[in-house]
């Protein structure tokens, strides 16, 4: 060849042809340029010289032609069966076929609590919906129906059952396999002692369903780390809370002036708490204290952390958790937008939006369409003005004492707001704590529900304008997704940290005035009905002009966060991309191990 490069990578190709392969003669081009007018003219005499060298009969030209013929033969052999390119293409096809035949297999193992299982099932749905990923969810017999009801129709999701340790070993009543069904600390302790009995059955299951490419298990299952390590499987931890709480939990607490107040150090922003609001693991049941010790010694061996959050919600704390604290972590939420009721919630929040795939969207909505009592609630909400209803729920495990329940009833009644109030099945007989004549006085504007309620659907209804919440992370995110301001009433766990995020940083909530972290209702100071009424009215935009303006600003920020949450889960959004990165990293790891 006589080489005459112009632009692009052509000058590199010239070096290969002339210097490395030695089958070419350069004509003398010296300038990379797209436009002919920008290139120096190569004179005819120079062209003649290069052509004569390439076409000449001398020794150098003959050697160049010999090498060119040898390369031509090598090129032919490369494409024949057994040749280098033939073999490489075959390997590529086989690897592609292998990946197509065996998708990435991720096993999810949620803790047996009503608040822990739904987000992990929804996460399994989210993984499986990406394509090229198969998921297996592990459950015990009594919890299987809840998990099965949340599986995404048509997705590559399997459910495997592990037997819960027998009542003879646990001392628990038969059929008790969910910690939310327990109300006394002794039973909770027995439950936690029984949980590690799942270790050997889980290990056998992983061997049975191999190959497994990753295990995502609850924070309360640190023993899944050595089980996964034995089989060479990466384990990721799911905490069930957000980045701010993870950072705050690890931050040192220093007394600030008064001994009743502490400031959390080494965080991106100033965080001040009452000492009485801080978690006190010393008061936890013995099995929990032992568990926290095991977590502290094993957690660093996890492959990483998967968090139900999104970048726009807590960017400073995502960076802090990753960079300052040195954790590998991926945010994949808010998962509530993808779980059961997620499609219907989207339709209610964005009724005029055109879906990209309307038929597929309609099928998904029909699969999750509310029935029975849910339909009644929607009809009841439809009769109320937009933004007028306050929803009250303390989660599946949040308990209030009878006196506090009575004061909450007084506060809701005095607020004058329509309300839906969900109380636990295990709460005392409401005849004992409901004020006399309460139901009759509020029957036109209030509903008191016992047991489960479709929280995501209720919060997403246009009539709902506020949410009294215990600040469990699932509830916080569902409030964010719905764009609803919150009245914060934390009880225990990381809930007081979540309150600080909602009230101080996001500024989409008002505190009701809870001051003490306590597992037992009788250990908490009672919040009076008058105080509850005042906070509810402020949050709902009642009262003086200044309070109304503050509530309007809070609602505006809540709506903006709801839009940001929706964008995070869409293609190209922060959580969509982070999940794609995690899946790709697990896929790359599998191929590297295979090689």
Automatic annotation (TrEMBL):
- Read off the Gene3D superfamilies from this record: Glycogen Phosphorylase B
> What Enzyme Commission number(s) appear in the record?
2.4.1.-
* PROSITE patterns in the cross-refs: UDPGT (PS00375)
The answer to keyword Cell wall biogenesis/degradation applying to this record is no
Q: Tell me which domain of life the UniProt entry assigns to the organism this sequence originates from.
A: Eukaryota
| Region of interest (Disordered), residue spans | 351-370
The molecular function GO annotations come to:
UDP-glucosyltransferase activity
InterPro entries from the UniProt entry: UDP_glucos_trans, UDP_glycos_trans_CS
Matches recorded under Pfam families: UDPGT (PF00201)
State the top-level EC class: transferase
Residues in coiled coil: none
Key word Transferase present: yes
Family assignment?
Belongs to the UDP-glycosyltransferase family.
Q: What PANTHER family is this protein classified in?
A: GLYCOSYLTRANSFERASE, SCOPOLETIN GLUCOSYLTRANSFERASE-LIKE
This protein is called Glycosyltransferase
């Amino acid at each position: 060849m006589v080489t005459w490069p112009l632009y692009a990578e052509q000058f590199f190709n010239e070096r290969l042809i002339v210097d490395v392969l030695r089958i070419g003669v350069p004509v003398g081009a010296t300038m990379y340029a797209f436009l002919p007018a920008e290139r120096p003219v190569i004179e005819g005499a120079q062209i003649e010289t290069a052509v004569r060298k390439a076409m000449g009969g001398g020794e150098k030209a003959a050697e160049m032609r010999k090498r060119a013929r040898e390369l031509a033969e090598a090129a032919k052999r490369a494409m024949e069966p057994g040749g280098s390119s033939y073999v490489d293409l075959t390997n590529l096809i086989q690897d592609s076929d292998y990946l197509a035949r065996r998708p990435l297999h991720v096993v999810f193992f949620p803790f047996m609590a009503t608040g822990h299982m739904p987000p992990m099932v929804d996460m399994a749905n989210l993984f499986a919906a990406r394509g090229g990923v198969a998921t297996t969810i592990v459950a015990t017999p009594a919890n299987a129906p809840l998990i099965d009801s949340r599986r995404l129709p048509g997705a590559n999701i399997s459910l495997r059952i592990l037997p819960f340790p027998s009542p003879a070993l646990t001392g628990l009543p038969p059929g008790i396999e969910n910690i939310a069904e327990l109300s006394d600390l002794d039973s909770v302790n027995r439950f936690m002692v029984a949980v590690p009995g799942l270790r050997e059955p889980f290990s056998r299951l992983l061997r049975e369903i191999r190959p497994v490419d990753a295990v995502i298990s609850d924070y309360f299952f640190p023993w899944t780390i050595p089980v996964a390590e034995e089989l060479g499987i990466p384990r990721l931890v799911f905490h069930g809370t957000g980045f701010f709480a993870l950072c705050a939990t690890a931050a040192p607490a220093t007394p600030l002036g008064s001994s009743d107040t502490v400031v959390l150090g080494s965080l991106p922003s100033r965080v001040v708490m009452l000492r009485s609001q801080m978690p006190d693991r010393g008061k936890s049941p013995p099995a929990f204290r032992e568990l926290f010790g095991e977590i502290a010694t094993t957690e660093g061996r996890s492959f990483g952390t998967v968090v139900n959050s999104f970048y726009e919600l807590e960017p400073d704390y995502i960076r802090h958790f990753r960079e300052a604290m040195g954790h590998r972590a991926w945010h994949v939420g808010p998962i509530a937008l993808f779980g059961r009721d997620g499609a219907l919630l989207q339709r209610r929040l964005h009724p005029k939006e055109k879906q990209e795939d309307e038929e597929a969207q309609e099928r998904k909505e029909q699969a999750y369409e509310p029935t029975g009592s849910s339909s009644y609630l929607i009809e009841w909400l439809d009769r109320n003005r937009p933004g007028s209803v306050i929803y009250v729920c303390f989660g599946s495990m949040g308990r209030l004492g009878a006196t506090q329940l009575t004061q909450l009833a007084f506060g809701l009644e005095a607020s004058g707001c329509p309300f839906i109030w969900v109380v636990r099945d295990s709460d005392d007989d409401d005849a004992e704590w409901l004020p006399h004549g309460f139901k009759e006085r509020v029957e036109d504007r209030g509903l008191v529900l016992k047991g489960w309620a479709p929280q995501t659907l209720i919060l997403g209804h246009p009539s709902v304008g506020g949410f009294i919440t215990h600040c469990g992370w699932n509830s916080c995110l569902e409030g964010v997704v719905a764009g609803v301001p919150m009245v914060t009433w934390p009880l225990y766990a990381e809930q007081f940290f979540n309150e600080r995020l909602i009230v101080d940083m996001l500024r989409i909530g008002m505190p009701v005035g809870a001051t003490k972290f306590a597992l037992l209702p009788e250990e908490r100071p009672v919040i009076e009905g008058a105080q509850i009424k005042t906070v509810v009215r402020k949050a709902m935009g009642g009262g003086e002009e200044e309070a109304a303006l503050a509530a309007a600003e809070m609602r505006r920020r809540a709506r903006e966060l709801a839009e940001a949450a929706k964008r995070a889960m869409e293609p190209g959004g922060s959580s969509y991309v982070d999940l794609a990165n995690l899946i790709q990293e697990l896929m790359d790891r599998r191929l590297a191990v295979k090689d």
